[in-house]
């Protein structure tokens, strides 16, 4: 491949690097941190990094009920989240999720998400003996379920560039 084509000249690079829905789902299923952006009352962006799990097939997180992000989402449920990885250009991958947030305080649904987050970020299979840890994790918290409206994705590994890492 010529250098001109490798760096996207004369080629629709966006189409080349876009992930399929299956690739997006597989990427999000890996253990990553999710950056979540909500709108503050003054129009500025509130951006935080969160661990996440899945609830009813959607990405979701647990957070303090009185957190700034929850106050923002109660006022405006729009949320944009970013999950990404890679330290060199040829290895960059990521998914932006644009959607609406559903704030959940139902204990059963919260516990379902709590198990998901606990398992994913502790690399263990949940057992009933772990219930006190999950209960503590959910104390004074709510769940934010992210209902995706659209995805933007990229996987630079698809470009076939030479490794830029050392």
Task: Describe the protein's architecture and organization.
With 166 residues, this protein is α+β, with helices and mostly antiparallel strands. The protein has a single domain, classed as Electron Transport, Fmn-binding Protein, Chain A (Pnp Oxidase, Chain A, Roll). It has 6 helices and 7 strands, in the order H-H-H-E-E-E-E-H-E-E-H-H-E. It has helices spanning 3-6, 13-17, 21-29, 68-75, 107-122, 131-137, and strands at 33-39, 45-51, 53-55, 58-64, 78-85, 93-104, 141-155. Strands 2-1-5-6-7-4-3 form a 7-stranded antiparallel β-sheet, with helices on both faces. Strand 1 and strand 2 form a beta hairpin. The longest helix is centred in the last third of the chain and has 16 residues, at 107-122. It is globular and about 50 Å long.
List keywords for this structure.
166 residues; alpha+beta; Pnp Oxidase, Chain A; 7-stranded antiparallel sheet; 30% helix; 36% strand; globular; disordered N terminus
Which helices and strands occur, and which strands form pairs?
Elements: H1 3-6, H2 13-17, H3 21-29, E1 33-39, E2 45-51, E3 53-55, E4 58-64, H4 68-75, E5 78-85, E6 93-104, H5 107-122, H6 131-137, E7 141-155
Antiparallel strand pairs: 1-2, 1-5, 3-4, 4-7, 5-6, 6-7
């Amino acid at each position: 491949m010529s250098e001109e084509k490798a760096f996207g000249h004369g080629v629709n690079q966006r189409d080349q690097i876009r992930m399929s829905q299956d690739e997006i789902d597989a990427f999000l299923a890996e253990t990553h941190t999710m950056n979540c952006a909500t709108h503050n009352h003054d129009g500025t962006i509130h951006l935080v990094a969160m661990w996440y799990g899945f609830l009813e097939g959607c990405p979701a997180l647990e957070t303090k009920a009185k957190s700034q992000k929850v106050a923002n989402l109660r006022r405006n449920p729009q949320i944009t989240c970013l999950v990404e990885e890679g330290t060199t250009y040829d290895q960059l991958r990521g998914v932006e999720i644009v959607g609406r947030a559903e704030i959940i305080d139902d204990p059963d649904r919260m516990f379902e998400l709590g198990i998901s987050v606990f398992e994913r970020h502790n690399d263990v299979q949940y057992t009933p003996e772990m219930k006190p840890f999950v209960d503590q994790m959910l104390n004074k918290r709510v769940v934010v379920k992210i209902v995706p409206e659209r995805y933007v994705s990229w996987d630079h590994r698809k470009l076939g560039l030479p490794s830029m890492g050392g």
